[in-house]
Amino acid sequence: MIRVYTEKSLCPKPIITFNDKHFNTNVSSEFLDAECRELMKKIDDAEIIDEEKWLIKTRFGTGDIRNLSTGLKTIVNAHNMKKQRQSGTIDVREIGENLVSLFLQVVSGSDISLYTGNHNFIGIVDENYTFILNDTHEVVGTAGLCSNLEELRYCRK
User: Fold this and answer.
1) Residue 126 dihedral angles phi and psi, to the nearest 5°
2) I need a surface site. Which of 15, 34, 115, 140 has the fewest CB within 10 A?
3) Residue 51 domain-assigned?
4) Which residues make Cβ contacts (< 8 Å) with residue 76, sequence separation at least 6?
5) Beta strands 143-146 and 112-115, pairing class
6) pLDDT in tens, 17-71
7) Which residues of 51-63 are buried (b: 16+ CB within 10 A; e: fewer)?
8) β-pair partners for 125
């Protein structure tokens, strides 16, 4: 089960709200294991060409690792939380819809919750396509994705 919160004060701590900053602060060889590097290649078509200077090569040219997309950084942050068996919440408001499915695969089976804020692009419905939102602003379910919470009532696989 993946928990999705719309109210920040109810989210399990710690909360990673600035994924760019968290990623940029924690970049290290240990933080960027082989799986992270595969994610870099898959999402941003990026590879590290100089670990000392943290230079990357992408289809746009050579740049600093801080130039990776926020969506990728968010997924790498989640991967590392899961790898370290940490619980907490990740703010997913800056992930593009193209990465929702991959992000959910990464957090699946972990104790990581998602914070979507008031402008949600992700929601989860149960096996019967029933939208579940309780009075704590927690969305709970196990199947199906939709582009925003309002559409969940009409969501189909």
Assistant:
1) -80, -175
2) 34
3) no
4) 23, 31, 32, 36, 39, 40
5) unpaired
6) 999 999 999 888 788 999 999 999 999 999 999 988 889 999 889 999 999 999 9
7) eeebebebeeeee
8) 131, 143
Instruction: Say which amino acid occupies 56.
Output: I
Residue 82 lies in a domain: yes
Count of CB atoms within 10 A of residue 27's CB? 17
Helix (H, G, I), strand (E, B) or coil at 129: coil
Sign of CA dihedral 27, 29, 34, 38: positive
Give the span between the Cα atoms of 87 and 123, in whole angstroms. 20
Q: Which amino acid is at 29?
A: S
Q: Distance between the two ends of the chain, CA-based, in angstroms?
A: 17
Domain extent for 126: 2-29+69-154
Q: Which residue has the higher pLDDT, 74 or 137?
A: 74
Residue 89 domain flag: yes
In a domain, 54, yes or no: no
The reply to whether omega before 12 is within 30° of 0 (cis) is: no
